[in-house]
Amino acid sequence: MENMSDNMKKDLISILDIQDRIKELLRIAGEIKKKYKNGEPFTPLEGKSLGMIFEKPSTRTRISFEVGTTQLGGHALYLSPKDLQLGRGETIADTAKVLSRYVDGIMYRAFKHEMMRELADNATVPVINGLDDVEHPCQIMADLLTIREKKGTFEDQHLVYVGDGNNVLHSLLLGGAAVGMDVTACTPEGYEADQKIFQKAVEIGKETGAQISQEHKPEDAVKGATIIYTDVWISMGDEEEKERRLKAFEGYEVNDALVSLASDEVIVMHCLPAHRGMEISASVMDGPNSVVFDQAENRLHAQKAIMAEMMS
Ligand code: CP
Ligand code: NVA
């Protein structure tokens, strides 16, 4: 979790890499979004290429990075490990070194955080984490952009995450703490966030004024929440734990009864893909408090700001 300033090369592996720049990047993302909506071209990546390695499936990350690169004047390449020599045993380090000779940035969706680090350590171009088993920083930048648009400020918000202590929760805890927003992680026992990451968020919160807490009872946790956030109970790579997880997460569905306990102005967020009838009811997902498709759209604008900053 080193800071961007510790590196010669800028990487976005953890949301902590941009901890002190989140608000500035959100401001830039807002400007880029406005330009796009007004039809004003903004092409700082002219002549540049982004290599995108996906070890796992993706709808939003793949499409928003690919389209975003095109809109910035550049070109994105979708690289599947099974089509690369990576699938036949070439190391991630060698892949990083070779790609760095061709492209101006690498976006990587990895099963393992260690592989993400190894790629970043060996690449000489910026590396952007498009999700691994520890964090999902680009998602949280889109989420914070959405919260800023819907709520105006972070400091008077209380986000309650109801669900699995996974990559999305980790980046939310760290990113929320960094911008001064209260975050409660409500997970079943045994499915808490990584406690080192949780403690790091608590420490950051002491500096920014954010209250970072943990809970196990959704009905207690969401009282007064201005934002309820959920994510899948079975993340990519956790499929073999399905039966055990379905039992453990009973009572964790974000449904109308739970939402009714929160603030009247509560918004409901989900990084998607969603499973209606599991972590979120159809009525909430498709209801008036849901902002999930604005979040999905903001992946495009937030990532354009990240790429413009890191690659141009
Ligand atoms: N939220 C998100 O990262 O979606 P994808 O898995 O479709 O990229
Ligand atoms: N936690 C989920 C997020 C998907 C975007 C996963 O890792 O599968």
How are the elements arranged and paired?
Layout: H1 22-37, E1 49-54, H2 60-71, E2 75-79, H3 92-100, E3 105-109, H4 113-122, E4 127-129, H5 137-151, E5 158-162, H6 167-178, E6 182-186, H7 195-208, E7 212-215, H8 218-221, E8 227-230, H9 242-248, H10 256-259, E9 267-270, H11 282-285, H12 292-311
Parallel strand pairs: 1-2, 1-3, 3-4, 5-6, 5-8, 6-7, 8-9
Helix pairs in contact: 1-5, 1-12, 2-12, 3-4, 5-6, 5-12, 6-7
Bound molecules: phosphoric acid mono(formamide)ester and norvaline.
The site of norvaline has 9 residues, from helix 6.
What are the salient characteristics of this protein?
12 helices, single chain, Rossmann fold, 2 domains, alpha/beta, 312 residues, four-stranded parallel sheet, globular, binds norvaline
**What do we call the CATH topology of the largest domain?**
Rossmann fold
**Unreliable sequence segments:** 1-7
Instruction: State the secondary-structure class.
Output: alpha/beta
Radius of gyration: 19 Å
Report the average pLDDT across residues. Answer: 96
CATH superfamily of the largest domain: Aspartate/ornithine carbamoyltransferase
Number of DSSP strands? Answer: 9
Largest sheet: 5 strands, parallel
The ligands found in this model are: phosphoric acid mono(formamide)ester, norvaline
Shape: globular
Task: Write the H/E string, N to C.
Answer: HEHEHEHEHEHEHEHEHHEHH
The structural domain count equals: 2
Second CATH tier, the architecture of the largest domain: 3-Layer(aba) Sandwich
Helix content: 40-55%
The CATH top-level class label of the largest domain: Alpha Beta
